[in-house]
């Protein structure tokens, strides 16, 4: 049918005098492309691509310098696939068919330094000869002669003949585009098409114009090199509009001296970005790099200041690679690319159920799940870190459909491509990224790295990215490159910092179709955008952002939707936030840290499924949570219902102390009942300066932060508040309206717009008459952090944070304010029951850093009598010391006393004569010996810190493991010199090398004087043979025959057969080795307080009958596990 219609069209000829306009067609099947050209006299190829075509990033050198000369500028490919290139040195036009290796014709002429050419459908060639001779020439195919067709004042950087036979010339040095009709016999009849002739950036001006293109509507497109933009001059208009470049309405890419331009059949732009040495193209999602995306160079995937481009009829791209003196051909590989992950398009009012569904618990995904990926088929991939496996299941299945085991350790991230290849991090121990090949069911190394990759990403050009928090950098390599060591820096200098070119512990990464890299910059609490090829990032979310609407705390994941809105995993705030028209808002996990269904506990990564639900790896809750999208939140979003509430703040209104203020303010609490779940906007109108906040369930005037979901002071316009938030019909909310000027009231109105009306009702709350810290408040506690203070890893990333623990004794239930006063940059945590420096997230109740002032923290906490609370005071950065004081709001109802963790003793050892060796290193810097004979203590060793473990070998040598100094020292008890300590293991600098330790804990020395060390944060046991500084890993993921995964081993004993027994602290168990490797012995049923469970055991010992005694730390008990002898029978 199509052919019949086209046949009828072809038979029509339009003629006017000698100029005949032929309507022709070109039918082409190529790869997955089917396109039909209805061409009005067009001589060049204008393909119809899909919105997401891909070219092979490695170009083929179609012609080198020996054929096209030095620095070729001009190329043209016609609809017959005949290629024309100007050879500038010999003043010739080289012509050949694409299938030909050698030129089929060389047309010599009388021209110099030609920079452009254009070939019409009859084979005539228009070429620039303006630099020396001030003319444009036309070579006539019929007569094989050249004539002058245009007089110009300078070189024409680009030539174009439109469908009306009008010739255009872009004059770079005259900042103008001129044109003349070829049907006009007057050769000097040039007219201005664009530009005033004076350089400038106004709409009617150009600066150094280069490439030009004229479409069927006679609209003129100009690459305005000096202004780094592309201008569109509609027919007859002198003012242009910027359609590409930093000043366009929707800039998605940065240009630097664009020099060539072509439109495809759908009017998508293809631009030669000369100074960035690349070709870019527009599409549904804005601009993206197509070829030359690896900075300038001479490799096959690089360009060096290209000048022009042209397409053949198959959609292959030909580029004049000027400074490389060659013509490169980039083959169209795929007319579209398929993303392996879900990138939904959301409505502006999208809302998710705040209560998550647990789709996989610890029994399926293990402890501390970090990596999750959901593909477009709704297949879920999760890394099981304890079993060294990837667990795979369909979302609609209860049980996994596949478990892929491998020889990898401490897996932090994974990425699945559309061909089901799985890329996994194995950098921590083995320094590599692996790919699981679905065809062979095997793993291969695809990237070498220096440390763990917290996040992996494969872009549409098959480039693999790895974010390395320990190296403060993101690196990448092309998977098409055969050299596996071809890593290049994508972002970061390798040194931590907050400058635009630096990162501090980068985590999650995302690369869009434009090859723009988004980095969750954890240590800087921001998200950085690194545009393709740019070393300097732009802060798109974070406190340094131009319009911050939310505060991030160690973001660790980032995803873009199809509209380029950001979704961010706000790790230390235990929530997921998303951007929109009104800035950022909390989406899920908006109710504080916890284990309930509407809470998260330091989540590590997330993904969308095909139904637009959010799937989260809930790290410290050991589960995978699904938060379902409320589909009704996007129904009838155009019909908005508004509710109005009016009231007045007076001197009779209750008062409170908002945030950190020392003055009281009038407020009114309003109960909000939501009839229909969805996105609602609250804004105020008043003559007074208003502040608004909304809270979940209730409002505590003594603690304005409690249950707070959103707040704002003057977002809408000066002195008024406005915020948008997702509300659910099943939850009670409280809106608080207050003044921002103390002791001032007035009339106000509240407007609430959303998918339905809301019910607003005033609630009466009592006033809060007491200031947080009344003037003259004296410190309740004062102390100092010194180099002798205990140290720990506050954020599980950096070590050597000095800290002090303070016991808070509560005499009366109520709200208490606690704040610091110090010249240091202080950080505060409150723990319930106890504090474990080896796991700072355990028992964490509240965390506050610089809430109210630049360097001091402040808490408002509801505390109860009879509960043990521990306040930990530390610093923002490691290795900081100084004085500090703690202020409290009600000093007569709360007392603060120093709480010495392991101060009395962290360890002891008893020798055969009954003498007891006791650690006293934390404050007094010594090990003491209690003599059974004299019943007295004497100092037997001087140390710099607490000894986590002590041991006396058969030669009376005393060993001390100094966890904070990453070292084990020893001294002979027969040596009279007390300072005769020697290092026996560890360099004193933390690390995972064979000669290094990281927070060593338990130690054991056998009769051969072999030293066994439980190397805590390296999750291994090391053996140091006598006199050897390098240890051998005998237990842990990096041992030769790993059969068990350790997590924070801190105690070790050998039996008579040299089998190992290990306290696996963070796995809450005791494990032992045997003929068949390691196995769990006790505490094998998860953490808990039942008789078969343990919580963070610290040490153990055997009696002479083989019964095991365990210090069950957080169950506050000593557990005895009887030895069952019958299991050892024949």
Automatic annotation (TrEMBL):
PANTHER family on file? E3 UBIQUITIN-PROTEIN LIGASE NHLRC1-RELATED, PROTEIN LIN-41
Gene Ontology biological process: proteasome-mediated ubiquitin-dependent protein catabolic process; protein polyubiquitination
Q: Name one GO molecular function term.
A: ubiquitin protein ligase activity
Q: Which Pfam families match?
A: NHL
Q: Where are the NHL repeats?
A: 197-236, 494-533, 988-1027
Keyword check for Cell membrane, yes or no: no
CDD domains under this entry? NHL
Q: Entry's InterPro entries?
A: 6-blade_b-propeller_TolB-like, NHL_repeat, TRIM-NHL_E3_ligases
Q: What is this protein called?
A: NHL repeat containing protein-like protein
Transmembrane regions listed in the UniProt entry: 21-44
């Amino acid at each position: 049918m199509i052919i019949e219609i086209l046949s009828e069209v072809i038979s029509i000829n339009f003629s006017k005098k000698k100029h005949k306009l032929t309507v022709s067609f070109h039918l082409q099947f190529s790869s997955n492309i089917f396109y039909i050209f209805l061409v009005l006299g067009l001589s060049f190829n204008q393909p119809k691509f899909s919105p997401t075509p891909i070219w092979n990033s490695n170009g083929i050198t179609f012609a080198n310098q020996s054929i096209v000369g030095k620095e070729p500028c001009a190329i043209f490919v016609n609809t017959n696939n005949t290629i024309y290139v100007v050879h500038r040195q010999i003043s010739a036009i080289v012509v050949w068919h694409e299938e030909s290796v050698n030129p089929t014709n060389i047309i010599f002429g009388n021209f110099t330094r030609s920079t452009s050419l254009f070939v019409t459908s009859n084979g005539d060639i228009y070429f620039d000869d303006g630099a020396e001779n001030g003319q444009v020439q036309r070579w006539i195919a019929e007569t094989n002669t050249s004539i002058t067709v245009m007089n110009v004042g300078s070189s024409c950087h680009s030539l174009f003949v439109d469908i009306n036979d009008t010739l255009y010339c872009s004059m770079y040095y005259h900042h103008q585009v001129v044109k003349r009709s070829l049907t006009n016999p007057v050769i000097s009849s040039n007219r201005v098409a664009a530009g005033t002739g004076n350089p400038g950036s106004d709409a009617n001006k150009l600066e150094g114009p280069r490439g030009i293109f004229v479409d069927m509507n006679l609209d003129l497109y100009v690459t305005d090199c000096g202004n780094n933009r592309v201008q569109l001059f509609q027919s007859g208009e002198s003012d242009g509009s910027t359609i590409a470049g930093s000043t366009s309405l929707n800039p998605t890419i940065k240009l630097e001296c664009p020099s060539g331009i072509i439109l495809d059949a759908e009017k998508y732009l293809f631009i030669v970005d000369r100074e960035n040495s690349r070709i870019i193209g527009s599409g549904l999602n804005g601009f993206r790099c197509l070829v030359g995306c690896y900075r300038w160079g001479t490799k096959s995937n690089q360009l060096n200041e290209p000048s022009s481009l042209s397409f053949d009829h198959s959609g292959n791209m030909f580029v004049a690679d000027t400074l490389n003196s060659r013509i490169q051909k980039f083959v169209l590989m795929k007319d579209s690319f398929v993303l392996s992950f879900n990138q939904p398009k959301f409505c502006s009012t999208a809302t998710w159920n705040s209560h998550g569904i647990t789709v996989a618990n610890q029994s399926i995904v293990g402890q501390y799940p970090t990596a999750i990926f959901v593909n477009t088929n709704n297949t879920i991939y999760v890394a099981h870190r304890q079993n060294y496996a990837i667990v795979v299941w369909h979302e609609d299945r209860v049980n996994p459909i596949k478990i892929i085991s491998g020889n990898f350790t401490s897996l932090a991230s994974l990425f699945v491509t559309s061909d089901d290849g799985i890329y996994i991090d194995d950098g921590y121990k083995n320094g590599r990224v692996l790919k699981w090949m679905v065809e062979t069911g095997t793993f291969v190394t695809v990237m070498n790295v220096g440390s763990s990759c917290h996040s992996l990403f494969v872009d549409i050009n098959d480039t693999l990215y790895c974010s390395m928090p320990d190296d403060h950098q993101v690196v990448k390599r092309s998977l098409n490159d055969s050299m596996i060591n071809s890593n290049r820096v994508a972002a970061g200098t390798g040194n931590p910092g907050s400058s635009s070119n630096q990162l501090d512990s980068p985590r999650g990464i995302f690369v869009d179709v434009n090859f723009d890299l988004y980095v969750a910059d954890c240590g800087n609490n921001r998200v950085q955008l690194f545009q393709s090829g740019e070393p300097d990032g732009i802060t798109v979310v974070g406190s340094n952002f131009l319009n911050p609407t939310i505060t991030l705390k160690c973001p660790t994941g980032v995803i873009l939707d199809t509209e380029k809105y950001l979704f961010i995993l706000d790790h230390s705030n235990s929530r997921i936030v998303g951007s929109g028209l009104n800035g950022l808002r909390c989406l899920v996990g908006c109710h504080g840290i916890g284990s309930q269904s509407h809470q998260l506990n330091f989540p590590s990564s997330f993904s969308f499924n095909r139904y637009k639900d959010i799937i989260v790896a809930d790290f410290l809750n050991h589960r995978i949570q699904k938060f379902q999208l409320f589909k009704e939140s996007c129904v009838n979003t155009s019909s908005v219902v508004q509710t109005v509430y009016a009231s007045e703040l007076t001197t009779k209104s209750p008062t409170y102390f908002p945030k950190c203020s020392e003055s009281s303010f009038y407020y009114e609490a309003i109960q909000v009942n939501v009839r229909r779940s969805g996105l609602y906007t609250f804004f105020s109108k008043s003559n007074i300066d208003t502040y608004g906040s909304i809270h979940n369930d209730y409002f505590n005037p003594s603690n304005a932060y409690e249950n707070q979901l959103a707040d704002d002071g003057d977002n809408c316009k000066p002195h008024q508040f406005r915020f948008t938030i997702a509300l659910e019909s099943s939850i009670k909310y409280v809106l608080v309206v207050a003044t921002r000027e103390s002791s001032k009231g007035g009339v106000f109105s509240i407007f609430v717009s959303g998918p339905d009306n809301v019910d607003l009702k005033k609630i009466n709350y009592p006033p809060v008459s007491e200031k947080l810290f009344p003037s003259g408040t004296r410190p309740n506690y004062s102390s100092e952090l010194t180099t002798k203070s205990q140290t720990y890893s506050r954020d599980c990333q950096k070590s050597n944070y000095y800290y002090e623990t303070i016991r808070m004794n509560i005499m009366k239930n109520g709200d208490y304010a606690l704040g610091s006063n110090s010249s240091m940059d202080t950080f505060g945590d409150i723990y319930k029951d106890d504090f474990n420096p080896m796991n700072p997230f355990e028992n964490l109740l509240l965390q506050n850093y610089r809430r109210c002032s630049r360097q001091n923290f402040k808490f408002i906490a509801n505390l109860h009598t009879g509960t043990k609370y521990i306040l930990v005071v530390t610093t923002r950065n490691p290795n900081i010391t100084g004085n500090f004081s703690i202020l409290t709001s009600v000093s007569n109802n709360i007392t603060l006393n120093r709480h010495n963790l392991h101060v009395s003793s962290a360890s002891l050892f008893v020798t055969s004569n009954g003498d007891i060796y006791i650690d006293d290193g934390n404050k007094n810097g010594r090990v003491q010996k209690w003599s059974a004979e004299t019943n007295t203590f004497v100092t037997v060793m001087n140390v710099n810190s607490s000894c986590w473990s002590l041991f006396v070998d058969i030669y009376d040598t005393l060993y001390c493991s100094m966890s904070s100094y990453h070292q084990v020292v020893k001294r002979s008890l027969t040596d009279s010199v007390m300072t005769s300590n020697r290092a026996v293991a560890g360099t004193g600098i933390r690390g995972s090398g064979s000669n290094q330790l990281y927070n060593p804990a338990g130690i054991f020395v056998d009769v051969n004087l072999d030293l066994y060390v439980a190397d805590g944060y390296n999750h291994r046991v090391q053996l140091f043979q006598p006199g050897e500084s390098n240890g051998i890993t005998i237990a842990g993921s990096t041992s030769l025959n790993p059969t068990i995964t350790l997590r924070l081993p801190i105690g070790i004993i050998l039996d008579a057969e040299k089998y190992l027994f290990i306290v696996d602290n963070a796995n809450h168990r005791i494990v032992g080795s045997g003929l068949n490797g390691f196995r769990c012995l006790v505490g094998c049923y998860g953490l808990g307080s039942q008789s078969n469970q343990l919580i963070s055991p610290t040490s153990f010992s055997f009696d002479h009958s083989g019964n095991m005694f365990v210090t069950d730390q957080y169950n506050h008990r000593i557990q005895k596990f009887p030895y069952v002898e019958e299991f050892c029978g024949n």
